[in-house]
């Protein structure tokens, strides 16, 4: 029997869709799942694609079914399952075979795994895959980290299965070891911030202006034709227009306001803190999900504080335009923070992350896909040195134009008692960022007062102490 060009372990939702995508692009793929009924069902349901699929009932069978050097994608639950599969594969495959972990791994685990396999093999790749079930099936955004030559071997498959933006495949090798999984993590952190800011604007319209979901949906639909054009705005507009089958009410009104999270947003906040890079909009979005989960406490707090939420002025066209600009400004700042975290990580871990390329492969396939990312790619291409996104010509113009709207939106929301934690954090960041003279002189004085930590003076070099007594 003709051998497969690639293998895949783990036929859960993501694995099964990725395998179908690969088979559809004309590659022969061998698949294995711990529970073999799933493998049988998968092959049986693959229709005409089944001719490109070899169902295997053991890892040995899988290994024997693939041409050497064997690339094998792992799409099992992140964490221990990945370590178990690597252990099991190690005894079966060769040193120059390639294990590709395509799950949502923490990049620190990817670095550890790669280090452990460095001398003995097999070769290891950490690959971030974004776009959910639909992306996996029809074209995800793919972020690769690991040995370059191992990537080169699987590149034709990745090129074929990735999403396309104006014909360009949204996949790239971004650097060694955990670079791909790190970039995927920051992608998710930015996604949290983007979603939270959209939800905050929805909250202003719902609670401040008393608008119905369908009306709000119409505004998002309009915004989707402008600068905010993106997948998240598009689905927000759609979601707001959907009616619940059971009750006939707008579906968002019967969904409990308690958000889940699987951890990648939190990891981005943790990593930004570890690197000493402010990513406050992302942090605020993660925290907002955490607070959303404390529903019982929030209900009690509402009873205790009994603070009336004020209404805001009726949303005429000018005010709708203001909210649009505010969302755009908040978004720019959140993305700037995410890219700054990647810049710092790139230096810390020696990756030399190509920021324009990162923006390019996020233009399609992934959840934050948008034309905005095309603008970020162009902004980074135009810069000769790595700089903060807010300092690039294109985005400094944009933020200068929209910051007033963000300021007004945050101020009015604060007065009305409408929570806008991510937008407010973004604004706070921008206001500190843009001021040459801040207030850390006082922090330094306090530190010197209680801990003799010393301070620098404007008028003399070296470390100084105050005469605090
Ligand atoms: P889904 O993507 O459908 O939500 P999941 O629970 O995240 O599924 O699991 C994804 C894949 O990881 C499944 O193929 C699962 O195998 P089973 O079908 O046998 O459950 C696989 N998986 C989870 N833990 C595993 C382990 N320790 N070893 C091997 N495969 C494992």
UniProtKB/TrEMBL annotation:
<feature type="binding site" description="in other chain">
    <location>
        <begin position="187"/>
        <end position="188"/>
    </location>
    <ligand>
        <name>substrate</name>
    </ligand>
</feature>
<feature type="binding site">
    <location>
        <position position="447"/>
    </location>
    <ligand>
        <name>substrate</name>
    </ligand>
</feature>
<feature type="binding site" description="in other chain">
    <location>
        <begin position="130"/>
        <end position="132"/>
    </location>
    <ligand>
        <name>substrate</name>
    </ligand>
</feature>
<comment type="similarity">
    <text>Belongs to the 6-phosphogluconate dehydrogenase family.</text>
</comment>
<keyword id="KW-0570">Pentose shunt</keyword>
<dbReference type="GO" id="GO:0004616">
    <property type="term" value="F:phosphogluconate dehydrogenase (decarboxylating) activity"/>
</dbReference>
<keyword id="KW-0521">NADP</keyword>
<comment type="pathway">
    <text>Carbohydrate degradation; pentose phosphate pathway; D-ribulose 5-phosphate from D-glucose 6-phosphate (oxidative stage): step 3/3.</text>
</comment>
<dbReference type="GO" id="GO:0019521">
    <property type="term" value="P:D-gluconate metabolic process"/>
</dbReference>
<dbReference type="InterPro" id="IPR008927">
    <property type="entry name" value="6-PGluconate_DH-like_C_sf"/>
</dbReference>
<comment type="function">
    <text>Catalyzes the oxidative decarboxylation of 6-phosphogluconate to ribulose 5-phosphate and CO(2), with concomitant reduction of NADP to NADPH.</text>
</comment>
<dbReference type="Pfam" id="PF03446">
    <property type="entry name" value="NAD_binding_2"/>
</dbReference>
<dbReference type="InterPro" id="IPR006184">
    <property type="entry name" value="6PGdom_BS"/>
</dbReference>
<dbReference type="InterPro" id="IPR006183">
    <property type="entry name" value="Pgluconate_DH"/>
</dbReference>
<feature type="active site" description="Proton acceptor">
    <location>
        <position position="184"/>
    </location>
</feature>
<dbReference type="GO" id="GO:0050661">
    <property type="term" value="F:NADP binding"/>
</dbReference>
<feature type="binding site" description="in other chain">
    <location>
        <position position="289"/>
    </location>
    <ligand>
        <name>substrate</name>
    </ligand>
</feature>
<feature type="active site" description="Proton donor">
    <location>
        <position position="191"/>
    </location>
</feature>
<dbReference type="Pfam" id="PF00393">
    <property type="entry name" value="6PGD"/>
</dbReference>
<dbReference type="InterPro" id="IPR013328">
    <property type="entry name" value="6PGD_dom2"/>
</dbReference>
<dbReference type="InterPro" id="IPR036291">
    <property type="entry name" value="NAD(P)-bd_dom_sf"/>
</dbReference>
<feature type="binding site" description="in other chain">
    <location>
        <position position="192"/>
    </location>
    <ligand>
        <name>substrate</name>
    </ligand>
</feature>
<feature type="binding site">
    <location>
        <position position="104"/>
    </location>
    <ligand>
        <name>NADP(+)</name>
    </ligand>
</feature>
<feature type="binding site" description="in other chain">
    <location>
        <position position="262"/>
    </location>
    <ligand>
        <name>substrate</name>
    </ligand>
</feature>
<protein>
    <recommendedName>
        <fullName>6-phosphogluconate dehydrogenase, decarboxylating</fullName>
        <ecNumber>1.1.1.44</ecNumber>
    </recommendedName>
</protein>
<keyword id="KW-0560">Oxidoreductase</keyword>
<dbReference type="GO" id="GO:0006098">
    <property type="term" value="P:pentose-phosphate shunt"/>
</dbReference>
<feature type="domain" description="6-phosphogluconate dehydrogenase C-terminal">
    <location>
        <begin position="180"/>
        <end position="469"/>
    </location>
</feature>
<feature type="binding site">
    <location>
        <begin position="33"/>
        <end position="35"/>
    </location>
    <ligand>
        <name>NADP(+)</name>
    </ligand>
</feature>
<dbReference type="InterPro" id="IPR006114">
    <property type="entry name" value="6PGDH_C"/>
</dbReference>
<comment type="subunit">
    <text>Homodimer.</text>
</comment>
<feature type="binding site">
    <location>
        <begin position="10"/>
        <end position="15"/>
    </location>
    <ligand>
        <name>NADP(+)</name>
    </ligand>
</feature>
<dbReference type="InterPro" id="IPR006113">
    <property type="entry name" value="6PGDH_Gnd/GntZ"/>
</dbReference>
<feature type="binding site">
    <location>
        <position position="453"/>
    </location>
    <ligand>
        <name>substrate</name>
    </ligand>
</feature>
<dbReference type="InterPro" id="IPR006115">
    <property type="entry name" value="6PGDH_NADP-bd"/>
</dbReference>
<feature type="binding site" description="in other chain">
    <location>
        <position position="104"/>
    </location>
    <ligand>
        <name>substrate</name>
    </ligand>
</feature>
<feature type="binding site">
    <location>
        <begin position="76"/>
        <end position="78"/>
    </location>
    <ligand>
        <name>NADP(+)</name>
    </ligand>
</feature>
<keyword id="KW-0311">Gluconate utilization</keyword>
